[in-house]
Design goal:
Strand content: under 5%
Order of helices and strands: HHHHHHHHHHHHHHHHHHHHHHHHH
Distance between the termini: 131 Å
Number of strands: 0
Structural class: mainly alpha
Mean pLDDT: 92
Helix content: over 70%
Length: 442
């Protein structure tokens, strides 16, 4: 009798700890109660709920399953298992279980609601939307349904409808988690930065310590060219979490934009110290070292970046430029060729490969590459400058003049292009002297 009383007391203590959100302590008390009396399905169900709070979803499924052994047709327990199947990526099992539930209980709305989420993750968006409308017939004010459908719509890049659904979520449940963040992301994806900024700020007012939102807002401000505002958000994220790698990396890139290369390197090294496998950091560090003139340090970091990810376009471009600086155009060309394979519609790779060909005295190939760069990006003044120089080298002065005039009409202050007219005068003078010389008696 004392054992049963102790079990009841421990279960009651677990309930009190749960109210205080002391999930781990509550779990220990409840497990002690279950060890004494393993036949109470409510305790197993409560244990599943505590494991959910601790994000131990596999164990939660086991706990709900143990409860279900005592009450095999319990619809909420089966739904809880399906929900956790979704959380651990077993989406097909979730759909199968929820189909059985709705087959037995056709008016049970959660069986349709959670299927929207599972089908979205399986990429079956048409079926997900069908489940939404079936759920609406049973409960047209379910915020979860609107949230799940919004996720499906966002996956399809139907951001306007996704935003509408998330707005409905907030109307139905103003404190629904993460929705303002999702709306901000959707506005950002549509190229509406001011609306995105407004919702990131709203999200922060609801979750002021959320470093992920702070970093996303900072990234948006970088895109909006508000580097000071961005840096302030990244610094705040670091104040909240000194090991926020994303904030360190972005502070490094902001310092780079301000041409504070020493500070950029300091931040990027700090990010590497926390996790030397963070994607992209070595590429940016290599770029910064290249800008500082530390070519061999740059080459080392960029080489490691490309070992980690051979398709890292930032590292490819920087490595090619580094090898050019080291006077190795043949090796540099290999990196720019790979960059063109990765980014065939970006002018930079063609321009830089053209420079390699010019340095290797392959002027026809270089000219073709400059023309390709200009086909992709007609206003690329750097490509016009290199093309004009190549035309001069080949004696195609009229072509050089035409390209130079075109470039100066875009950027009248471009130093390289402004030096080319002087070359024409020099060449004309030389030709004049050559003609005079040819007419003199021997």
């Amino acid at each position: 009798m004392n054992d049963w009383l102790e079990a009841e007391n421990r279960a009651e203590r677990a309930a009190q700890l749960s109210e205080q959100e002391r999930w781990g302590d509550a779990l220990l008390e409840l497990e002690a109660a279950i060890a004494i009396n393993p036949n109470d399905p409510n305790w197993h169900a409560q244990r599943g709920q505590l494991l959910d709070q601790l994000e131990r979803y596999d164990e939660a499924i086991e706990a709900y399953s143990e409860a279900l052994e005592h009450v095999p047709q319990h619809v909420e327990l089966r739904t809880a298992i399906a929900t956790n199947f979704i959380r651990i990526g077993k989406h097909e099992q979730a759909v199968s279980l929820l189909e059985k539930v709705s087959g037995e209980h056709p008016n049970y709305e959660p069986a349709y609601c959670h299927r929207i989420a599972a089908l979205t993750r399986l990429g079956d968006h048409e079926k997900a939307e069908e489940m939404f409308y079936l759920a609406q017939q049973l409960n047209d004010k379910c915020p979860n349904c609107f949230h799940h459908l919004a996720e499906s719509l966002a996956c399809r890049e139907d951001f306007a409808r996704a935003i509408y659904c998330w707005q409905r979520v907030l109307e139905l449940e103003p404190d629904y988690p993460q929705v303002r963040h999702r709306i901000a992301d959707a506005y950002r994806a549509q190229g509406m930065p001011e609306d995105a900024k407004d919702f990131y700020l709203q999200a922060l007012r609801h979750e002021p310590g959320n470093t992920e939102i702070l970093v996303e807002l900072g990234n948006l401000l970088v895109e909006m060219d508000d580097l000071d505002g961005a840096a302030a958000r990244f610094r705040l994220a670091l104040d909240l979490d000194a090991e926020c790698i994303a904030a360190l990396v972005m502070l490094g890139l902001v310092a780079w934009q301000h041409d504070e290369l020493d500070l950029a390197v300091e931040h990027l090294h700090a990010a590497l110290k926390l996790d030397d496998g963070t994607p992209g950091v070595r590429a940016h560090l290599g770029e910064a070292e290249l800008r500082r003139g530390n070519h061999y340090d740059a080459q080392r970091h960029l080489g490691m970046a490309l070992e980690e990810d051979g398709d890292d376009c930032v590292a490819r471009m920087a490595m090619g430029n580094c090898l050019l600086e080291l006077g190795r155009p043949h090796e540099a060309a290999q990196h720019f060729e790979r960059l063109i394979d990765l980014l065939p519609d970006v002018a930079g790779g063609y321009h830089n490969l053209a420079v390699c060909h010019f340095l290797l005295n392959r002027f026809d190939e270089g000219i073709d590459l400059c023309l390709k760069a200009l086909e992709i990006e007609p206003g690329n003044v750097m490509a016009m400058h290199k093309l004009a120089l190549a035309y001069i080298h080949q004696g195609r002065y009229n072509d050089a003049r035409a390209v130079t005039d075109r470039g100066l009409s875009i950027d009248p202050k471009h130093h390289g292009l402004n030096t080319i007219p002087k070359r024409f005068w020099t060449l004309r003078f030389r030709r004049f002297c050559d003609r005079i010389k040819s007419q003199l008696p021997i």
